[in-house]
TrEMBL record:
Record lineage: Bacteria, Pseudomonadati, Pseudomonadota, Alphaproteobacteria, Hyphomicrobiales
Signal sequence range: none
Species of provenance: Alsobacter ponti
Residue intervals of the Carboxymuconolactone decarboxylase-like domain: 40-97, 151-220
Pfam families on file: CMD
InterPro entries, A to Z: AhpD-like (IPR029032), CMD-like (IPR003779)
Protein name: Carboxymuconolactone decarboxylase family protein
Length: 253
């Protein structure tokens, strides 16, 4: 398979920061370019899917990087992504916030029990959306604790979630690869979800190489620190230089 030719600017990852880095530290900049853009240049994932994953990483409720999101969104559209595909990615980036309940509700049940506090479980409340998720084979047992604590709220959330799972804009394989990215991202690092989605991705036909490419994209996301900081530093240095008196002016003081 011929590897795609991707220039340093022909991607959603880099903004003006790479040019600044080339000027200030050319040797390190060359190493950074080779490493950061490998997922784009390897051809393991399609260019469109790489950029959609970039949209997900930057839009994720654990990240919310506006500039990175805009770059990847433009690049995804350039690569042929549709409005529906990008909308589904944004939905996935939003609903991952349920991990707050996946993490906290079992702890609440355990600590309440340890403290001798009884918690009423409303098991007779109707939960049609939860039932639909179970029927679709998409129920996660990590959701059982907060279903027991608040079935009405859980069902309201699952009515939102089932709309994501039943959306056909992306394939099951693509959804699972995207989910791996947002769960494994260094701003989230949610191990149970990462493992679950890796297992589901393999079942959906993803290869280990594709999953590794997703994890590499999570690492490339780290360079958003440079995209944020280098233009800011360059601007501050330029401002200070403009405010300093010239040598001739300083000598006349």
């Amino acid at each position: 398979m011929e590897k795609p030719s991707v220039s340093a600017t022909d991607n959603g990852l880099w903004g003006p920061a790479l040019d600044i880095l080339r000027e200030w530290d050319p040797s390190w900049a060359r190493s950074v370019e080779v490493q950061s853009l490998e997922p784009w240049r390897s051809g393991v994932l399609s260019r469109k899917l790489v950029e959609l994953i970039g949209v997900g990483l930057n839009a994720a409720c654990t990240n919310l990087n506006r500039e990175g999101l805009q770059r990847h969104m433009r690049a995804a559209l350039d690569a042929g992504a549709t409005r529906g595909e990008i909308l589904l990615v944004l939905k996935c980036a939003a609903v991952m916030a349920v991990h707050s309940c996946s993490l906290g509700s079992p702890l609440l049940l355990e600590e309440a029990k340890a403290a001798g506090i009884a918690i009423e479980h409303a098991t007779d409340a109707p939960t049609p959306a939860c039932d639909g998720m179970k029927a679709a084979g998409q129920w996660n047992v990590a959701w059982d604790p907060f279903l027991a604590l608040d079935p009405a709220w859980t069902d309201a959330f699952m009515a939102v979630g089932i709309g994501v799972y039943t959306d056909s804009s992306l394939t099951a394989r693509e959804i699972e690869l995207l989910s791996i990215a947002v769960d494994a991202s260094f701003t989230h690092m949610y191990a149970p979800g990462t493992r679950r989605h890796i297992a589901h991705a393999l079942k959906a036909g993803a290869t280990p190489a594709e999953i590794m490419a997703v994890l590499k994209l999570c690492v490339s996301q780290g360079y958003q620190a440079l995209n944020l900081g280098l233009p800011m530093l360059a601007e501050e240095l330029a401002r200070r230089a403009a405010e300093e008196p010239s040598p001739a002016a300083a000598a006349s003081l």
